[in-house]
Amino acid sequence: MSALSVQVPFPVFQDRDGQPLENGYVWIGEANLNPQTNPVAVYFDKALTQLAAQPLRTINGYISNSGTPAQLYVDAVNFSILVQDSKGSMVYSFPDGTGVSADASGITFTGFKGQVGFVSDLADNDGSDWIGFEQSGTGVVARSAQDKMRDIFSVKDFGAVGDGVADDTTAVIAAITAAVASTPSTVVFPAGTYKCTTVLGDFTASNLSLVGEDATLDFSSIATSPGVTMLSFSGSIAAGVSLSSNATEAQKTVSVVSSTFAVGDFVKIKSTSVWDSGRTSSTYGELNFIQAIPGASSVTVANDLMSTYTTAASATIAKITPVRNINIRGLKLQGPTGNDNHKGIVIKYGINCTIDGIQSYDMDAIHVQFFDSTFCRVLNSYFQESNSSSTGYGTSFADATQDCSAENNVYTDVRHSLSTNNSSAGGIVRRVLFANNIVTDSAPATTGAGGDAIDTHAGAEDISIIGNIVNSSSGSGINVECRSATICDNVISFTQNNGITFQNYTDLTGWANVSNNTVRDVLGNYCIVVVPYTASFGTCVINGNDVDLTTTSGIRARPATTFQFVNLTVNGNSVRMTGTSTLGGIDVEGVLSGTICGNSVEAPSVGIIAQGSNNLSITGNSVRLVSTSGASTGYGVRIATSYGCVVNGNTLYDDSNLTASNATSFATTVTYSGVFGNIGSKFTSGTVFNISTGTGNAAANNITGL
Predict the structure, then answer these.
(1) How far is CA 29 from CA 8, 74, 240, 543, in A?
(2) Is 169 strand, coil or helix?
(3) Which of 14, 124, 252, 561 is most deeply packed, by most CB within 10 A?
(4) Residue by residue, what is the 3-state secondary structure of 559-570?
C-alpha cells in the first residue's frame, strides 16, 4: 500500500472572492471521474488508518478534523477533486491529480479567462487573474478576482507600512497617483499611522475617493517651506473671453467677442468692479454653467446673473475644467509642528466634492478650504488648532464659491472656525450654509487679536448660519461683514467681544435675518449688534432672540455713519441685562420704518431707546428697570431726534433705585409722535409719560401705576 499526500493548490482552500473558504465542501474521487459519485477512501494520516468521511468540510479555508486543520492522504497515484462553497456552488475542480508533488505545482487547470497553466501560476503576481468572482444578486456579471480587487487601491499595495516610523510618503503618493490614472477609483488607508515627510502634492482628478480606516497621515515631521498645503486637488481655468456688451443682474444671455464654449461648460464670470470699497476691495465674480449657444458671439447661462458686469470694468467669462466628485472620508491629518501657516486640504475649481468624517490637527493657516467651487460639503469632522497671524481657519469657502455647506462639525482652538474669504482671483461667495456645528475656545491670532468663531468677510452674500453652538470665543461668537445673511437658532455663550455682530461692509444695500438665537454671558459690548457700515439694510429682522446676562447692551441696531435701516423689525425678543450700563436693552437708530413689538426687556436704566428714526412703532413690549447703581435717571422708552413714532400698549415698570425715571421720554427733537395706552409703574419723575415740547406730539389713555 502506498500513500500519496493530497495537497490543495493554495495555502488554504479559497472561495471565489479569494477569501478563505468557510463551511465549504471537498470531495476526493477517482481520476477523471466525478468525485461525488466516484469517491475514493481519504485519510487524515499518512499511515492510512484515520478514515475521513466525505464530503470533507472546511473551517476558515482549512480541511477540518473535529475542528482542527488537517492534511489529507489517499491510497493512489492520482485523484480528482471538487470544491464547493457553503451553498453547494462550485469553486473549482481538478479532474486528474496525476504527478502531484509536495507543492502541487504539477496540477494543470484552466483559469477563469481560459488560461491553461499550472497551479504554480497562481503564485505569480497576476495569479488572481486566473480566479473567477461573481457578486450575489440578479443581473451580475462574472469577473476575475483581479478585476474585483483592483476596484480599490490600498496604500499598502504600494509598500506603505503604517507604523508611524517608516517614511510612507513615496508609497502614499504612488497609490494616489495610480488611482488618479484609473478613475473612478478609491484609495484605502488601512488602520495605522503613515509618516509623510513631504506634502503629498496637487492632483488633477475626478471621481476619486480617499478612505481612512482608523488611519493617520502624519505630517508632524515635514521638512519644507512654510505655507504649503498637505494635499490638494485642482482644476484649471482658461483665459477669460471679454464681454462685448454689458450684462445686467438677472440676465442670462451674455454677448462675447468670440465663443469656443460648449453646452454644459462650467464657467466663471468676473470683472474688476469692487464689491466692498471700504473693506477688502473684493471684485465681482460668480460661477455658472453654459446652457445654450444662441450664436457665434453669445452664450446663455443656466442661472440668472447675480451681479452686473460691464465692459468698462473688463468683464470676462472663462471656462473652468473642474475636479469633480472628490471624496475624502475617515482620515486623520496631523499637521506639522510649529506655527508655519500650513494648510491641510485645499480644493480649487471643484464640483460635488465632500470632506466627511475626517480629523485634522495643527494646520496653522487652514484645515480645509475651497476656491471657486460649487456643491461641496464638509461634514461630521473634527478640527483642532489653527491660529496664524492672518488666517487660522477651520473651514473656508473662498472667491466665487457658491452653494456649499459645512455641517455637523466640531472645531476647537481655531481662530475662525467657519469663514468666507476672498483672494485676488476675484469672486463673491454666495449661498453658503454653516449649520449644526459646535465651536469651542476659538483661539486668538498669534498677534493676540481676537478670533471670531464664525466669520464672513465682506465679499459674500446670502450666507446662512443656522443651529450652531459657540462656547467661549476670543472675539465675537458670530461676525458677519457681508451683504446679506440669515443667522438663526444658534446658541452663543462666553464671548470676549459681541455675541453676534452683523456689519454690512459692502457697497450694496443688504438684508439681515437674526432670529431665534440664544446669547448668554457676553463679556464684550453687545449681545446682538447690527450695523449698516458702508451701505444700508433694506430689510432687517431681529426676532425671537433670547439675550441674557449682558453687562453693556442687549440688542443694538445702529448705523456706523449716515446709512439706515429701510425697514427694521425687532419683535418677540427677550433681553436681560445686568450691571450698571446706561445703554438700552434694545437700542436702535437710523430707522426709516420699523417695529419694536412684543419684546421682554430687563435693563439697568434704559429699556428701549430709539433715535434718528421715522415711522417707528414701539408696541406691546414689557420693560422692567432693575438698576442698583444709584444712577440718577432712567427710561422705560427713550426717543430722540425722530419723527412719526408711536409708543403704544407697553407695560413699563421701574424696579430700581433710580432717583428720576420716566416710563417714556421724548427729547425735544422728537416731532409728530405719540404715547398711547401704556402702563407705567413706580417711575419717580413727576411726568411719568414725558412727550416733551416737540411739534405735534400727543399722549392719551396711559395709566400710571403704583
Answers:
(1) 14, 9, 75, 84
(2) helix
(3) 14
(4) CCCCCCEEEEEE
Provide the whole-model pTM.
Answer: 0.83
pLDDT tens per residue, range 519-562: 998 888 888 999 888 889 999 999 999 998 766 789 999 998 77
Extract the runs of DSSP E, i.e. beta strands, from 517-615: 518-520, 526-532, 537-543, 546-550, 553-557, 565-571, 574-577, 586-589, 594-597, 600-603, 606-611
* Residue that has been written with the C-alpha cell 450691571 in this structure: 579
Task: Reduce the secondary structure of 243-256 to three states and give it as a string.
Answer: ECCCECCCCCEEEE
d(Cα 615, Cα 638) in Å, to the nearest integer? 15
Q: CA-CA distance, 224 to 408, in Å (whole number)? A: 33
Report the C-alpha gap between 291 and 112 in whole angstroms: 47
Which neighbouring-strand residues pair with 576? 548, 602
User: Cβ(362)–Cβ(387) under 8 Å?
Assistant: no
What string of H, E and C letters represents the secondary structure of 29-96? ECCCCCCCCCECCEECCCCCCCEECCCEEEECCEEEECCEECCEEECCCCCEEEEECCCCCEEEEECC
Q: What is the DSSP string of 469-489?
A: EEEEESS-SEEE-SSEEEEES
With the CA atoms of 404, 409, 412 and 413 taken in that order, what torsion angle do they form, in degrees rounded to the nearest 10? -20
- Determine the Cα–Cα distance for residues 91 and 37; give it in Å rounded to an integer: 18
What the block records as the C-alpha cell of 94 is 481538478
Q: What are phi and psi of 456, to 5 degrees?
A: -110, 135
> What is the residue whose three cell numbers read 437674526?
514
Cα torsion through 226, 231, 237, 238, rounded to 10: 80
For residue 118, how far is the Cα from the chain centroid?
A: 54
Residues 6+ apart with CB under 8 A from 78: 31, 96, 97, 98, 99, 100
User: How many other C-beta atoms can be found within 10 angstroms of the C-beta atom of residue 17?
Assistant: 16
**What is the signed CA dihedral for 193, 194, 198, 199, rounded to 10 degrees?**
-90
Q: Per-residue pLDDT tens for 277-322?
A: 888 889 999 999 999 999 999 999 999 999 999 999 999 999 999 9
- Residues 582 and 689: their CA atoms lie apart, in Å, by 20
